[in-house]
Prior knowledge:
Blueprint: H1 12-23, E1 27-32, E2 51-57, H2 66-77, E3 87-92
Helix pairs in contact: 1-2
Amino acid sequence: xxxxxxxxxxxxxxxxxxxxxxxxxxxxxxxxxxxxxxxxxxxxxxxxxxxxxxxxxxxxxxxxxxxxxxxxxxxxxxxxxxxxxxxxxxxxx
Length: 93
């Protein structure tokens, strides 16, 4: 588990900013579902910043298979893994 005093926990706003800067989405919704995962692996006592759902559409996805689309999202959010991000559910629109 990451020490929250070393790195701030990821936020919806931070994930949205990273995705907008990297993927120029035409649609984007980021939802922090951490509170729903209390007691599960990767959850923290704070109840936020560990489990997110991303709904996204981007012109960069055009012509790419689902795995490649998901890889683009994971790559854009990689920096947040060190901050305590444990799970990302991705819905490509």
